[in-house]
Amino acid sequence: xxxVINPAxxxxxxxxxxxxxxxxxFAISSAREAFDAGSxxxxxxxxxxxxxxxxxxxxxxxxxxxxxxxxxxTGKPIxxxxxxxxxSSAKTFEHFANxxxxxxxxxxxxxxxxxxxxxREPHGVAVLIVPWNYPLLIACWKLAQALAAGNTxxxxxxSLTPLTVLELxxxxxxxxxxxxxxxxxxxxxxxxGELLCADKRVDMISFTGSSAVGKKIIGYSSKNVKKLIMxxxxxSAGIVLKDADLELAIxxxxxxxxxxxxxxxxxxxxxxxxxxxxxxxxxxxxxxAKRIKLGDGLNYxxxxxxxxxxxxxxxxxxxxxxxxxxxAKLLCGGKISDNPELKKGFFxxxxxxxxxxxxxxxxxxxVFGPVVCVSKFSHTDEVIKLANATDFALACxxxxxxxxxxxKLASRLNxxxxxxxxxxxxxxxxxxxxxxxxxxxxxxxxxxxxxxTRLKN
Length: 457
Hints:
- By secondary structure, the protein is an alpha/beta fold.
- Helices cover 42% and strands 20% of the residues.
- The protein contains 15 helices and 20 strands.
- The longest helix has 26 residues, at 78-103.
């Protein structure tokens, strides 16, 4: 068994059973049997839709309980859990339930002396590996798509944050899905990773997490070829042009880096500001960053909670110290909060650096915490070069009154998602995923759904 910690105070909030190697193997066997000999891949789409809608409603029925549990386990503010994570999780199941017939529609092509039917089928057994920053939401993204496509699944949450996914298991059981279709195991990544990803009984893997772990999974999966969806790290850039609505750009940029304590793959951890407005932007941004209220996520006044663990905080501190040694200018934060009420938790102040050069570690590497670099640029060619000057290519945000110019810039940016005058808009209708070291494959939308299918001619 393992203890589960509340990062806001370091207290144990639960104990969770940890799957053994035999239990992990049994979960794979169960999913394999349910796919090869069970009813799930062969039931009508209308029946499948009904099961997905039951899960969606089950999440809504337990929304308050799930939101509180998510905040206790992750530390994120209760407002984020209540108004973003939980309802979005339910809506994902609803969306794919209501669109699976459309997405799975056969296509017929009349050819010379032949006719071709293009048919979408499930892959088979899908292993879904979920990170600790959005435990329930990302689990629901993957589960809803995999199940809607007709796959059976083995889902592994992060061992740091298993609680809401274990509650989701109860909801799925109450929905009455056939035995073996969904198998949820709580295990450490070191134990489960190779067992799950190298096994030839597994047909596909959908992973969201760090680039370092993603590379290990690619290695494991090469022992028996299988389909992969990899959503990895990011070092995303927010670009603020001189004609931008300054207040909108400042508020949006604050959200883009300090939401969920900066623990997001899409965090805009590099903000590039046109030199004409750089001083005004810095003044407004730093002033508001200093006023962000840290606290226990269960308090509705809290704007930023703790980091997920002491180890994660130590990693952030190492990056901050390295940035200072490399010559970056610290404008605010950069330290553990000195509020005595927060001393038991893993809190870290919102941190802003200026005068950051592209060669610095803080510019190139993912911190995964509330740390941002603000740099200036003089012309658009320069900012495109700066924005693209990392190994990652997940997302970007552009703030400008000239949306036509912003669209042109977006077409030159190496990023899988480009937001204009907003940040973090995820919709079930449209795909999400990155390029380069940020991974490959898509989640959500028709394109993301089809990742969980195979195409037969």
